[in-house]
Amino acid sequence: MKGYTSSALLLGPALLSQLALAQQAPSGVVHWGIQKRHAPNAPNRLLRRAGPTHQAILQNEQARGGYFATCAMGTPGQKVTLQLDTGSSDVWVPDSTASICNKGACDLGSFDPSKSETYTVVGQGEFDISYVDGSSSKGDYFTDVFNIGGTTVSNLTMGLGAQTDIAYGLVGIGYAINEAIVGNSHSLSSQYPNLPVAMVDDGLINTIAYSLWLNDLDAGEGSILFGGIDTKKYKGDLTRIRIYPSSNGYYFSFIVALTSLQAISPSGNDTLTSQEFPIPVVLDSGTTLSYLPQDIVDQIWQEVGAEYSDRLELAVIPCSKKSSNGYFSFGFAGPDGPRITVRMDELVLDLTSGDPPKYTSGPNKGQDVCEFGIQNSTSAPYLLGDTFLRSAYVVYDLVNNEIGLAETDFNSTESNIVAFASMSATIPSATQAPNQAAVTNRPVATMPSFAASSGFSDTGGSGNDGKDENASAGMPMKMRVIRAVATLHAGRAAAVRQGVRSVGLGACRAAVETPLKQAKELAASNMTPEAAAARMTPEEAKRLARVRNIGIAAHIDSGKTTVTERILFYTGRVKAIHEVRGRDGVGAKMDSMELERERGITIQSAATFADWKKKEKGVEETYHINLIDTPGHIDFTIEVERAMRVLDGAVMVLCAVSGVQSQTITVDRQMKRYNVPRISFVNKMDRMGANPWKAVEQINTKLKIPAAAIQVPIGSEKELEGVVDLIDMKCIRNDGQRGVNLKISKEIPPEIKELCEQKRQELIEKLADVDDEIAEMFLEEQTPTPEQIKAAIRRATIACKFTPVLMGSAIADKGVQPMLDAVCDYLPNPNDTDNTALDRSKGEQPVKLVPYNSLPFVGLAFKLEENPYGQLTYMRVYQGSLKKGAYLYNSRGNKKVRIPRIVRMHSNEMEDVNEIGAGEICAVFGVDCASGDTFTDGGLPYSLSSMYVPDAVMSLSIKPKRSSDADAFSKAMNRFMREDPTFRLHVDEESEETIISGMGELHLEIYVERLRREYKVECETGQPRVSYRETITQKAEFDYLLKRQSGGPGDYARVVGWIEPNPNGGEDNHFESRVVGGTIPDKYISACQKGFQEACIKGPLLGHKVIGSSMVITDGATHVTDSSDYAFNLAAQMAFGKAFTAAGGQVLEPLMKTTISAPAEFQGNILMLMNKRGTIVDTEVGADEFTMVADCSLNAMFGFSTHLRAATQGKGEFSMEFSHYAPAPPHLQKELVQKYQKELEAKRTK
User: Fold this and answer.
1) 629 known member of a binding site
2) Greater model confidence, 988 or 766
3) Nearest to 110 by CA among 166, 67, 57
4) Can you give the residue ranges of the Tr-type G domain (predicted)?
């Protein structure tokens, strides 16, 4: 399954001897000669099948070779050599017409179905296997004769790779549950008999079992015996050990318990230990290297003098060690189980087929570099590949779920083949390993004395000193971990089969019970959240308790970026404060885009991190804060949306003058959508007209979340001095340059003391409404202590039942440090929130994720950015840890990706890190994915719900002014769409114009400006296009007959019924059939439904979507030869179009909730502007400014920003968000329909 060099198949004398062996095979046994070969044009990593089932092949990183066997397929037989794989269950072969075979790459043979008399297609176009490296094979499933070792399987189901980039086929002989499905069904009945099962069905063998061994270690030739064993091919006793099931009790791969490992050499013996003992290992002939836990691999490497090479990304060893007299002894299934000896010539492997690289420095300088056959992995189950299996005689019993193990006798020239007696018979001549129940006992992990080390080395040294910079730079602690992926299936039982198979797999082991302790230790990926929490170390719990993932969100111009700038300054992340709009020529740190600094608004969310030192009980504790500053303008709401999706808490900033504004309500809605707890910070307390109590009241009334102030301002407007902490009843004043020092005193100014006592009582009363503990104390007239109040605020805040309100002025450097303390005190850490994934193997059942580093990795890519170094992917780590160089799997398509670089973001600056723990936020390079993709380490079938993406509300036609800019234009559009899910692009089929769509005028204007600045592409934009909708207002009947003849078979369909507004209300379209008597067959009813759905995509009036309509079919007629799905589909479309006008077809236009704020002196001017554009909903007049809310037609709002600036001398601002669709005025509808008809007529006359 690896990327091998091309090589022709040579049949040596050993294969001729195997033919003689085949002739000796008794009844009930089928012999097949195999050869260890290099395969041509093999893909690099065939790790996991895409589709409804998982393929259980675990592959190493270096291309070495596999077991290959020659068969004959079809009648007459066509000779094909296939790779043998014990980890999968399909048989497939390249089609001789495949392009890769036409290029001469199919050296091992291909299949020509036209030359076989017995070829039958059973699944046309249904064979489809994809692998994570992008290689794939597609085509048909077929049945045909399959001949191996002179024995014929009469009717084997196989795949035919007509479209393949893999030049050789595969024969899987593992558990049948690992096969693909004919018919693409998940049902058990759709599984087809794989090769061993088909041989049982044909009476060729007695059971689903086989033995596998190499005859000659150097030549790499061997045998597989289906249904039997050869007692002369192994040394000592053949011992039966159990195969362990997955966590759900099903068997997918050959997992056994490795319970001991010894290093033995002339200089001494060492017993190697691991905290993972007993180690669950998969025996798999489909891979070369072996993968074991990190701790025991460190010991093995030190014994033999291997070392990890960062450049080669694997463990290397001098090639001279191949002749070492040392060896390793692997023990299985407890102290009395079988032991297998693996010598160094099996573990020292050539790196290349040409001249090997050489060590350029260190004690091994000048020696050839080889690859070491045992590599490191991070989690169970681990893997024993060919570096181990070549030394073992292995019997696979898939009925009793047992493995037979013994050392291969390579000197044997005799043969004694014994068949399995029956389906339920155990392995012949084998004894069962005793006391296997004791394998769960863990030995004490100790470091060996390495007495055997010198005996492994010809040079007498371990090779671990003076590392070579080119061949092996990097100590073991810096190793890149290669994950041996667990092959746990979605949960289909292998037991249910027809006939003999039902007896074999179902009756024997369907009810196997796995002790809970074994399941936890041998299947790490099955660790429950409860078990993870119980095993969490105090250090890990403390780390998580000090992590905060927060966002800063608010209405536009409420001071979010200014607040963030102070947070960075007070935490020491920046050395100087710079203001928004770049008034000092620098600009705020988080506004890194030139457009942001020019316009004074945040366009893209920006991430950073900081450490805040907070005193708790006299001890200084450091909190790690990951912070995202979000935009406030509604046009960039997706930036807030995806930030809220991954954050644990938020700071909602409000203006002390304006209070709750329109975008504050939108942000509140987003926080509630993702259950994000928040604290509220009333900013701009130094402004004239500041009224924090108005903001607190509006949080309670408009946002409908209980809120109470936990501070009272000292002074107001320009006289603002600081705040009074109502919990501890102390004054906090900022002092020194930029307010870096805090002056804390117990003396509350007398003029506000009564107010403070009143507000403290209001706080306790509000907490009593949302917290049971405070409620009991309140009813008993007890006064809670400050600690009890803080605990209640934290509980209620994390439960999203309450928001504490703090006060200050970021621009005046007041109140920010207490707000940071509140972030630490009241917002949750990653372990306080319930983050869930969907388990695809259990019907997307929710599964809790635990932010524990030792668990399998789960993360979400929530934002993409193009960077000079490539695509930058922002990722939230929900579970497990992420290490540089690790491999992850994208759950969408199961694609494997390597993480070459991990960074922490500080606005547009990056800080490289080697590892990120659970609960953190980071960014990675080199990952090709989409926003919202889930990543795992490959062992969990999990996916995370993505974020909500609102529909676009405005469109523009756009094209580059110069044709030479087409490539840059296309590149920019692709980038913008990847980065921003609300930015869409399509080409209008009729006008052939490129149309961009977005959230508003400013949104599209920014992208057009970025095209000019970042890509030097000048563009022409057309008239903004509004996303209208169409609907009907009344019932209209139809009786439509489609009848046309065109020389051959014609089209005939008659449909009768009516259309009407959807009786269920809403914007959904509804289809219903009330046909009786079979006048329209059921197969044509679905065609009518599709026709109705297609008609609703492009309405008759304007070509926009139709919403809120219903079609009911009551009668119709068909023709014997001329009726078809196409005819009824078309008839339904035509009937809908004809009846649309009679049903009161109507154009709906989007109405936008528009909020305008301006100084009170301009109220009259704005009223005049809005009277022409929409309906005024609400007006709020303050001390020096007023706010107006209106529902306005989007069509009337184009260019409004220019009119507003003119009417308010540039002092007014407005925001829009989509509200709902409403009927367009009759004159506008008539105008739009006429324009659309003219456009259609112009196209027809072209």
Assistant:
1) yes
2) 766
3) 166
4) 545-831
- Confirm whether residue 152 is marked as ligand binding: no
Give the H or E element holding residue 1140: helix 1125-1142
pLDDT: which is higher, 483 or 980: 980
Looking at residue 460, its amino acid is: G
Lowest average pLDDT, out of 279-288, 542-551, 1157-1166, goes to 279-288
CB 140 within 8 A of CB 162: yes
Give, for 565, the enclosing helix (H) or strand (E).
Answer: helix 560-570
Q: Is 559 labeled as ligand-binding?
A: yes
Amino acid (one-letter) located at 580: V
The whole-angstrom separation of Cα 507 and Cα 503 is 5
Over the stretch 581-602, which tens digit does the pLDDT of each residue have? 555 667 677 777 777 777 777 7
- In this predicted structure, the answer to whether residue 484 has a pLDDT above a threshold of 90 is no
Distance CA 959, CA 133 (A): 36
Neighbouring CB atoms inside 10 A of 82's CB total 24
How do residues 442-475 score in pLDDT, each as one tens digit? Answer: 666 677 888 888 888 754 433 344 344 344 333 2
Summarize the confidence of residues 90-100 as an average pLDDT: 91
User: Would the pLDDT of 489 be above 90?
Assistant: no
The answer to whether 70 is a known ligand-binding residue is: no
Please choose, from the candidates 359, 378, 361, the residue with its C-alpha nearest in 3D space to the C-alpha of residue 369: 359
Is 558 annotated as ligand-binding?
yes
Q: Predicted confidence band at 679 (pLDDT cuts at 50, 70, 90)? A: very high
Instruction: Report the C-alpha gap between 382 and 522 in whole angstroms.
Output: 10
The answer to the question of whether 269 is labelled as a binding residue is no
pLDDT at 1093: 93
CA 1193 to chain centre: 40
Q: Which two tokens stand for residue 1071?
A: 């289809």
C-alpha span between 377 and 375 (Å, rounded): 7
561 is in an annotated binding site: yes
Is 1108 in contact with 1146 (CB distance < 8 Å)? no
For residue 23, the surrounding DSSP H or E stretch is helix 13-24
- Per DSSP, the three-state class of 861 is strand
Distance CA 1021, CA 960 (A): 9
Instruction: Write down the pLDDT at residue 192.
Output: 75
Q: Please state whether 289 falls in left (phi above 0), alpha (psi between -120 and 50) or beta.
A: beta
Q: Average pLDDT of 772-781?
A: 92
Per-residue confidence at 515, pLDDT binned at 50, 70, 90?
Answer: very low
Task: Find out whether 560 is annotated in a ligand binding site.
Answer: yes
CA distances from 218 to 35, 225, 778 (A): 11, 21, 84
HEC-encoded secondary structure of 423-487:
CCCCCCCEEECCCHHHHHCCCCCCCCCCCCCHHHCCCCCCCCCCCCCCCCCCCHHHCCCCCCCCC
Neighbours of 13 (CB within 10 A): 9
461: annotated binding-site residue?
A: no
Q: Which residues of 585-601 are buried (b: 16+ CB within 10 A; e: fewer)?
A: eebbbbbebebbbebbb
Q: Could you please report the per-residue DSSP string of 941-959? A: -EE------PPP-EEEEEE
Task: Quote the strand ranges of 981-1077, DSSP E.
Answer: 984-987, 994-998, 1019-1021, 1025-1026, 1029-1031, 1036-1044, 1051-1061, 1070-1073
Region of residue 1098 (phi > 0: left; psi between -120 and 50: alpha; otherwise: beta)? beta
The pTM of the full predicted model, rounded to 2 decimals, is 0.52
Pairing label, strands 1070-1073, 1109-1117 = parallel
The answer to whether 949 touches 982, Cβ cutoff 8 Å, is yes
The reply to whether 630 sits in an annotated binding site is yes
The answer to whether 185 is annotated as binding is no
Please choose, from the candidates 424, 704, 660, the residue with its C-alpha nearest in 3D space to the C-alpha of residue 553.
660
Q: What angle do CA 486, 925, 314 make, to 5 degrees?
A: 50
> Among candidates 378, 379, 294, 279, which has minimal Cα distance to 332?
279
Top pLDDT among 18 and 1114 is at 1114
